[in-house]
Amino acid sequence: MKKILIATRNKGKVREFRDFFLKYDIEVESLLDIQQDLPEVEETGKTFEENAAIKAEQIAEILKVPVLADDSGLMVDALNGAPGIYSARYAGEGKSDEDNNRKLLKELYQVPKGERSARFVCVLAIAIPGEETTFYRGECEGEIGTEPKGINGFGYDPLFIPNDYEQTMAELDPSEKNKISHRSHAIRKLESWEKIIKG
Ligand SMILES: O=c1[nH]c(=O)c2ncn([C@@H]3O[C@H](COP(=O)(O)OP(=O)(O)OP(=O)(O)O)[C@@H](O)[C@H]3O)c2[nH]1
Ligand SMILES: [Mg+2]
Description:
It is an enzyme of class 3 (hydrolase). It is a single chain. By secondary structure, the protein is α+β, with helices and mostly antiparallel strands. It has one domain (2-196): Maf protein. It has helices at residues 11-22, 48-63, 97-107, 174-180, 182-189, and strands at residues 2-6, 26-30, 67-76, 117-127, 134-144, 160-162. α1 links the parallel β1 (2-6) and β2 (26-30). The protein binds ligand CZF and magnesium ion. Ligand CZF binds next to β3.
């Protein structure tokens, strides 16, 4: 079976990439499957693009193979785009998705419905040894609810209500999320993914 390596340790992302590539008979490998000791990549960039490039390029450099990386996050208009690139560590390093959601609700406590617009952003970077890194961006518009709902997905999905939907992303069937999500929009732009398939 053909394979693609994604430089992530996020199980939620891995599941979504697996679902997408399954129909092409392509197996998704992540850093969770690599036995070799790999350094913890520090996300020191100031943009999604910079962080996606850091993750993809460092692993491509070490393993000498093509690598895909995903840097993503939630941008809330009432918070001037926060948590943005800090979405994974919004409530602090090592805190859970629930902690991040609790902090987001607290920050938006006084913000009325109608002013809680937000978008998910996903930037994919493809690093191929010896070639210039390329980027693909996808976005998904919506608003932040007032309490967590649903058990599917990960991260802020229980609080994010996509435009034209009544339910949160975590209440939608995963196949529905995969049709409308920021990640799926970015993946669909990734015409050159065939270049990074092994086997
Ligand atoms: O509800 C959500 N649905 C999504 O579809 C989604 N995509 C991203 N996010 C949030 O943004 C952070 C990414 O940060 P991030 O790109 O640094 O990833 P990460 O640190 O979790 O894993 P890695 O890929 O870096 O190993 C994640 O942790 C989540 O909090 C999402 N939340
Ligand atoms: Mg990260």
